[in-house]
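User: Structure please.
Assistant: Input sequence and predicted structure:
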Amino acid sequence: MQRISCNIASVTPLCDTVFKVILTPEHPVQFQAGQYLTVVMGEEDKRPFSIASSPVDGSQLELHIGASVAESYAMQVIERLNESDSIDVELPFGDAYLRQESDRPRLLVAGGTGFSYINAIMDTLIAKGDTTTTFLYWGCRDRQAMYLEDKASAWAKQLPHLTFVPVFDQAQEGARQGTVIDAICSDFIGLGEYDIYIAGRFEMAGAAREAFRQHGVDEAHLYGDAYAFMK
């Protein structure tokens, strides 16, 4: 783990509840796709966010920060970034990084801004020319909340080995409604052969693990940082 000062290159909204943050570290950093960093708000206040960018180019760090409520945990970070020219971060953290050497098919699961984790993995796989069979399920409240749906859809159009399934809590015209976990359990008879990467709220990760156990998941191949904090 290292602490590094980063120039705040930009903070821009991706939708009304998600901000894209670009940080330029004082020197290129090394990490693995799927790891996270902490924004140092104070010595006793370090806040974790998935690194949304690929480690193929460590000269910039991208974050997707969901922040909609004034004075909330995440909005305080956005306000600090908007008020400052630089910020310290610590990285890398997390064991749920991409196992690219694996030849097992992949299931990528995101809830909300958990897509930032998946974004880093997908950008890395694309950069490396990986063609392993991959399914991407992304669950959000509605289409507006699915802030990079166009990017995920473009991946699926360009990559014959990738299937993208957006799932919405609220009814959206021509789209699948329900929970992302229920959608996966409906579509897959068994999950034992898959490497599964998952990011979202802890509650969602916990519910997914319980549901996936009923579908034969091999938990040695179930990767999610939430599980490091859960029994």
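DSSP finds five helices and twelve strands in the chain.
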